[in-house]
Amino acid sequence: MPDLLLIGGMTDEMLGRLTPSFTVHRWADFDMDWLKRNGHRITHVATNGHDGVPKEVMAGLPNLELISCYGVGYDAIDVAEAVRRGIMVTHTPDVLNAEVATTAVLLALACYRELLRDDAWARSGDWETRGGAPLTRSMEGQTVGILGLGRIGQEIARKLQPWEPTILYHTRSPKESPYEHVPNLVEMARRSDLLIVITPGGPSTKHLVNAEVMEALGPQGTLVNVARGSVVDEAALIDALGSGKLGWAGLDVFEAEPHIPDALKAMKNVVLLPHVGSATVETRAAMGGLTVDNLLQHLENGTVKTPVPECQ
Ligand code: NDP
Fold first, then answer.
1. How many C-beta neighbours within 10 Å does residue 305 have?
2. Which atom of ligand 1 is least distant from the CA of 71?
3. Closest ligand 1 atom, CA of 153?
4. Which of 68, 90, 161, 279 has a CA 20 to 30 Å removed from the CA of 58?
């Protein structure tokens, strides 16, 4: 049987489908010595968007044919190196669009309607001792700037429709879409009440959302990031939120996950999630299914279902 190296975790269901066809080795149980002795046997890797494939591990797998990533974002995998070596890389697009879009809307609503403050108000007894909670803001009819109008960005725009927003978007190239493309991100932020970030991570988007963008969004503005922590300058974000230059932030992703800066944790104008954009039982099962489908199909006939764009 071919040998598969598993980086990160895997559900029992995924393992149940893989073990009749692959000998599965868990990287968590091994070290570089094991890799030196056994690396040549590994033809397939299963990993995820967070762990990727560490550089030294990839270098120690001379006969690697396929990296199957559980997740749509693959910035933790050196795809340029994979392409150079003729290694196929797959990911799990589309099956998570709805869930991640729901997470973006959830974070936006939680900021606008102060969900955490009012939950605390209800639990603490403040309602009885202090009276009704202070008013919040309505999300109806807002101007929403979407940074990245790909598979998930479009689904976010669709899911926002009941709040009757004006939708703007910024991408490098305009898309066929009913929404207005704004070529300049600062300009889009200036015109937006709510900015939702949903680009890929990696060097090309690093700190796209910088101090200037946050100041343009302004004291009444809300920033939601469900993309990658690297897309937002976290130090500038803490500064903008702390000084009142930016109003609110709803964050699912952070620059040094799983670490979240204490300054963010202490702020009342933020809603924080531990990178759970796609983390429901149903969506994770669909992502796991596609991750395994790619591996099994590759074994069967050398093709895959969902290659990353660079490998198409
Ligand atoms: P797509 O590739 O379909 O869309 C990406 C969009 O980003 C495109 O519209 C693209 O347009 C735009 N974009 C890329 N680079 C830039 C740039 N430098 N400046 C402006 N726009 C840019 O990806 P998906 O919608 O499927 O996924 C997006 C990302 O969401 C993933 O890569 C992942 O990082 C993140 N994600 C997060 C999850 C979570 O749990 N929080 C779960 C799933 C995904 P153009 O090329 O024209 O610029």
1. 15
2. 43
3. 25
4. 279
